[in-house]
Input
Amino acid sequence: MAISISVLLLLMILAVVFLRSGGLKLFHAVVCVLLGFLLAGTSMAPSIANGISATAGVVSGLNP
Output
């Protein structure tokens, strides 16, 4: 759950930065949010969540 919240927070921050810089229009952000809600309701949701968790595990295991 902590990984999901941190990824959500990161994506929200990126969306705000893109909106402010003009790189992301409001309509594009709305479409992305709707796509996320629709993907969460599909059978692909567990696979996406597992992929994000695995990626977070790999990134957290890296030593600079």
